[in-house]
């Protein structure tokens, strides 16, 4: 039985797309426009997708404008922070509201305050650059 040309093309397209999906981070150098320092674009695809889906949900649901703006936003954040700094800042931000001494570990250290401030700055830059509504 001979496969149809359309089925063959769809199979090849699916194989090409799945070959490009990887759980390993990209290692593309990115130069930040402000500081001029070179960062490695090390945000894994899975984390980018998770960010976009959460952002889209917070901004009224899936449509082209939200999807594009939220994708733009994570790209802009990636320009400002390495993935390890982003992940640490996100963790500090999430756990800072833990009450009592347990939360102090996430609230009080200088590293926590610095990373949370960097994330807030990167988020504001991204919102301004990507016109997220």
Describe what this molecule looks like in 3D.
This protein has 133 residues and is mainly alpha-helical. The protein has one domain (25-130). The protein has helices at 5-20, 45-58, 64-80, 83-95, 100-107, 110-130; strands spanning 28-31, 38-41. Strands 1-2 form a two-stranded antiparallel ribbon. Strand 1 and strand 2 (38-41) form a beta hairpin. Helix 3 (64-80) packs across helix 6 (110-130) and helix 4 (83-95) crosses helix 6. It is elongated, with a radius of gyration of 19 Å. The protein starts with a helix and ends with a helix. The relative contact order is 0.12. The model is unreliable at 6-28 (pLDDT under 50).
Which keywords apply here?
6% strand; single chain; 6 helices; 133 residues; two-stranded antiparallel sheet; mainly alpha; 2 strands
- Helix and strand element order: HEEHHHHH
Radius of gyration: 19 Å
Number of domains: 1
Q: Name the helicity range.
A: 55-70%
Describe the sheet with the most strands.
2 strands, antiparallel
User: What shape does the CA trace take?
Assistant: elongated
Please count the helical segments. 6
Number of strands: 2
**What is the strand arrangement across the widest sheet?**
1-2
Strand content: 5-15%
Distance between the termini: 53 Å
Low-confidence stretches: 6-28
Q: Can I get a quick summary?
A:
By secondary structure, the protein is mainly alpha-helical.
Note the topology.
Elements: H1 5-20, E1 28-31, E2 38-41, H2 45-58, H3 64-80, H4 83-95, H5 100-107, H6 110-130
Antiparallel strand pairs: 1-2
Helix pairs in contact: 2-3, 3-6, 4-6
């Amino acid at each position: 039985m001979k496969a149809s040309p359309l089925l063959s093309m769809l199979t090849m397209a699916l194989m090409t797309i799945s070959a490009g999906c990887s759980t390993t981070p990209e290692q593309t150098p990115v130069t930040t426009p402000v500081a001029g320092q070179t960062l490695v674009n090390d945000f894994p695809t899975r984390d980018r997708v998770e960010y976009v889906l959460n952002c889209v949900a917070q901004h009224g649901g899936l449509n082209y404008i939200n999807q594009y703006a939220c994708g733009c936003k994570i790209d802009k954040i990636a320009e400002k922070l390495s993935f390890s700094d982003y992940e640490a800042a996100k963790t500090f931000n999430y756990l800072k509201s833990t009450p009592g001494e347990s939360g102090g570990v996430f609230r009080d250290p200088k590293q926590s305050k610095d990373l949370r401030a960097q994330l807030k700055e990167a988020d504001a830059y991204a919102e301004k650059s990507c016109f997220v509504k």
